[in-house]
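Standup notes
- DV: blocked on the single-chain target, sequence here:
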Amino acid sequence: MTINTPKLFAYAASNSRNSINKQLVTHAASMLTGYSTEIADLNDYELPLFSEDAEKELGQPESAMKFFNKIGEADALLISLAEHNGNYTVAYKNLLDWCSRINPKVYQGKPLVLLATSPGPRGGQSLLEIAANTVSFFDANLRGTYSIPSFYEHFKDGSFITPQTNEDLAKVVSELNPERLGL
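- DV (later): unblocked, structure below
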């Protein structure tokens, strides 16, 4: 009898090569055991700017299909949201728009934890609130959210230097433990 290892699909909603949200999601994913984990880079899913005209011309681009399929293959999702001017980054919003044209249920009912961080004192909370209030429209099973303000004051050498931050993050991320989800 073959036992399938559950899959975690994790990514930062940023196309910055030095994304602090990618550092956060990578650290958070390392707190989970029992998964085969893939940490995606949005740069691997570049797409033209979405418009109805572009959709008529291109149909459903391969990059959007690949990303949508990665979500479908996963058992759980872990996303760290980068905030630009209080909202999604253009790169992620564009990818989300393309995927929603494949199927409005982008998250395909998957359990999801949303994270956010920023160099500033709010830690991406504006976007985290927007996302938490809208992911259900895209068929996400939201299990928790967590924001970390002033990233550079807390994160050093791949980990958070304050034990409380690590404990709080681990508590939220544990909502995706395979045993808790019955995987």
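- Follow-up: The two ends are 16 Å apart (CA to CA).
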